[in-house]
Specification:
Layout: H1 6-22, E1 37-42, E2 45-48, H2 55-66, E3 70-74, E4 84-90, E5 93-100, E6 105-108, E7 114-117, H3 123-139
Antiparallel strand pairs: 1-2, 1-4, 3-7, 4-5, 5-6, 6-7
Helix pairs in contact: 2-3
Amino acid sequence: MKKFSSISIIFIAIFILCFALTGCGNNNKVKEITAESFTISYGKSIYTAKDKVDQDTIDSLVKKYNDIKLVGTTKQEINYDEAITIIFINNDQISGQVTVDDQGICRIEERLDNYSISKESNLYLDALNVYHDLQKNYES
């Protein structure tokens, strides 16, 4: 049986440590995005933020998206009667997408599963406020 050299053992130990620290891909966070604009829908209405809100509002919503902490997958269905869908746009391409309901059940981008969002996330309430502000901009 061949003996491992000390360099090989150190390399393997570093590899295992790095793999353990990254959490095997860390699926409880979303892929960070940037955005110049977004569309937001609630119920049967959809609004685009382009030229209707300031960049600070867009950046704030992007930050909320980037800060989403997923608790885990759930069998609970999204309540689409109360759900908000946000599609973030950067360089005329979709950079991120989320649908979240009032109970914190969401679907992120291309993921197939529904997830529960951490209670610390205020994405739903903040998005609902942005939606209502944007709705007012369209009505005026």
